[in-house]
Every structure is written in C-alpha cells, then in structure tokens.
Amino acid sequence: xxxxxxxxxxEDGDHDGTAVHPPAGFAITANGAYGARLAGSxxxxxxxRWTLDGPEPYAVPLPLDQPEERDTRLLPLADxxxxxxRRVDGRRHTFSxxxxxxPATGELRLGSVxxxxxxxxxxxxxxxxxxxxxxxxxxxxxxxxxxxxxGAFGPERVAEIPGHCAGGVWLDRTGRILALxxxxxxxxxxxxxxxxxxxxxxxxxxxxxxxxxxxxxLADPDSGLLLIRSDAPSPGHERLGWGVLGSLLPxxxxxxxxxxxxxxxxxxxxxxQVLMPESCGVAxxxxxxxxxxxxxxxxxxxxxxxxAAPPGWVAGAGTWSPEGVLxxxxxxxxxxxxxAGLSVPEEPEPVAVASAEPEAGDGGEHARPRACRPVPxxxxxxxDRKPAG
Length: 389
Description:
By secondary structure, the protein is mainly beta.
C-alpha cells in the first residue's frame, strides 16, 4: 500500500540499529535542500549539516574548539551555512554562521540580543527565501522580532508586536508575511499575519469564533492549505482542522485526525499543488505511550494512514517533494545519515469534501479556491452546522 525506500550515504547493512536522536531537533530549509542538527553524545556536541537534495544524503560535521550546549539552536540556510543561536549567562543570545573550510569549521560571528527576564530568544522556522533568519523574543505584553542573519549590521529589530506571541508560520514564498499565534491580555489566542516589509503591521488571520483559541500550525503558499488547532468545535478540547488561506469556505475538523490515546501534530505539507489544497499530502507525527509514528493524510480523504516510523527517525522532521514523496531524516549507529521515503496510499474511492467532516460554519457548494492573500478566514460561529457525512 505505502511505498517505502531508504536512501543512505553509508553502505548497505542492518537497518534495525539503535536510533541516534539529536538533543535539539532537526531543522530543514524551506526548499528541502539542507538540514541541521546537534550531533555527538554526552557533553561532546557539535553542529552537523545534512545535504538532502543530492543523489544520496550526506552529513558534514561542523565542530568548533568548544562543544555546543544542549540548548543551542540551529537553522540551516540555502547557501549551506548553519546559523547557531547560543544562550550566554542566562540572558544574552549570540548568533554565528558556521560553514566548512576544508578540514576545519569557519565561524562568522553576527552579534547578540539581550533577553531580560525569564524568557528567551527563539529562532523562527527557516525563511522561504533561504537567506534571512529571524528570531522572536516574546514578553508578557509585547513581542519583538529580530532579523539575525541576512541583514547588513548584525541583529536588527524589525517589529514590535503588542501581545504575547508564539508559533511562527510563513505564508508566502518571499519571507515577507509571517503568521504568529497572539494573546492579548487574558483574551483567547488568535493567529495573526505580520507584514515584515511594513514595520510589522498586524492583521487578523483566524477568527473561528469570538472566544475560541485558534492557532496556525502549518501553511503551504502554493495551495493555500492551512493546518489549524482550535477548540471552536468543542470548547476546552482542541481539535486539528484545515482551511484554505483567503477562502470563505469553513474550517473543517476531520474525525480521522482525532485519536483518543495519542497526540497528532502536523509537520510537513506537500508543496507544488497550486490551487489544489485537497490534494496536498500532509505528514503528521503521532505520539503515544508506545512511542512516535507517522500519519499520512490528504484533505480529500476520510482516512489518516498510520505508518510505523522508520528506524532512527528524527521524530517530527521531514519534507515533501512536489511529486508526493515524504522524506524522513533517520540516524542509527549503522546508518548515521539516511532518508526514508513514504507516499500516501491511494483512497479506494474519492470522497467529496463537502460531505465530510464537522466544520466551522456552512460553506455551501465547494468552489475551486482562488489565489489567496493573508486575510481573515471569515468563519461563521459554530451554529447550524451540517451533520458529518
């Protein structure tokens, strides 16, 4: 049913080895060309860059004279350099770019940002342009966005946003429009769109009901597909749903994405499906007491296909090809740098989306989505809903 293949830079061997999990996750560039993680063990940690877009993956270690701390954050850039964010003295965050220079590692120091109080500066997901890198410093009443790589003079403050923000999802292919989950005072969490070229101008993005917490988890600029977490359909209990950017169609909350004993989190959307959000493959991480595995789903279907995680999967990391192959980075003792390929099984019968799952409002006939811009989804309150098909 599901195609599965392993690409590796090592010789063929036993694929059932012990997983080597990075201490601080695995970041992948927006175009899927490079990845970065902390490698090593114990206190001997170092940055490692993966090349993912060649005939087979390979890893380049980027060690320095001093090992990295376990809470060091990494972000790969499209030119192959790796941005490193380190916390110093509990409040100062320094930024550097690492790159291979023959047998050694080069380091370009970019400067630092002070983060007073208990909060810290967090790197935002890789920018779609592959050149710039941003960080966010969230306080209780306001949030500061910093350009930490790609500018002219080191870290630059680019926006001050009222409210406490979290998350971070890019809504376009240029790195101009950023979605953040914002809370003002004691109010609900609402996703907003931030225009970085207009001084951080904020506009509403998600407003399913007035009192619901509406967070944006993922977005695909090609199709306009949005993956949303909200308690609108069942107050007090968050559900995973999907919508279309700029569309007047309602947000839908498929029952197949709701598991009683496991948490389901989307981590990658198939690109290249222009104006066809229902056709996008979506990869989901499923976490339960037994461990983590993979969910594969399309909005056009009723089923979420659950697949065992490949050996050594860096849980929650992966990227889609436009052709619909999900590539998962894996690392075991036998195969320290590998990619596993998965594809979504075909549904036995097409399912009309309009008759499918609980939705936030009545969307009427299912019209073809149009090219969209970051505007509110304009959802009606959860009243007079259609029954689930």
